[in-house]
Write a structure and sequence with these properties.
By secondary structure, the protein is α+β, with helices and mostly antiparallel strands. It contains 4 helices and 7 strands, in the order αβαβαββαβββ.
């Protein structure tokens, strides 16, 4: 992916809009190179739009811990991929044969700064309180089939 854009990103192969969808950047080991690819595909004055789950959500434990939010995964960028076993696919129901998966983490600041360093001008950042899937066990149903974190009534820190 990182080298393909050199061939494809010719002036006549740039776009008015470039979009990155939910769950795409967690598979990429280099957020700065990804940002350079984005700017390579974008026409001057074009719009880049990313819809992504909050990086903190990716840090929360997949295991049920009652009403506690437990951080099990790194929030900030990690040099090595994070490996885990997953019996099902995010792409649908059923099981998969090769269950070992790897992801990379990048904090919100790392992602935004990578885009700025690649030359994008950021007009706004809009965070949503809901997502289209139950990202972790503590999430509860919201309106219109969406999911959200429950209202926090008490925060306990040690």
């Amino acid at each position: 992916m990182y080298t393909t854009h050199r061939t494809l990103c010719q002036p006549d192969r740039q776009f008015d809009v470039v979009y990155t969808g939910v769950g795409a950047i967690c598979w990429l080991p280099d957020i700065k190179r990804w940002a350079e690819v984005v700017t390579g595909f974008l026409k001057p004055g074009g719009t880049f739009y990313i819809l992504e789950g909050d990086p903190l959500m990716w840090s929360v434990s997949d295991e049920g811990h009652g009403d506690k939010i437990v951080i099990d995964w790194p929030y900030f960028e990690s040099a090595e991929p994070l490996g885990y076993e997953e019996m099902t696919s995010y792409a649908g129901s059923g099981t998969i044969e090769h269950t070992k998966q790897y992801n990379f983490s990048d904090g919100l600041g790392e992602t935004i700064n990578a885009l700025i360093q690649a030359g994008l001008v950021i007009d706004f950042v809009h965070e949503h309180k809901v997502v289209h899937w139950q990202g972790n066990p503590i999430m509860v149903p919201a309106e219109n089939g969406l999911w959200k974190c429950p209202t926090v009534k008490k925060i306990s820190c040690r």
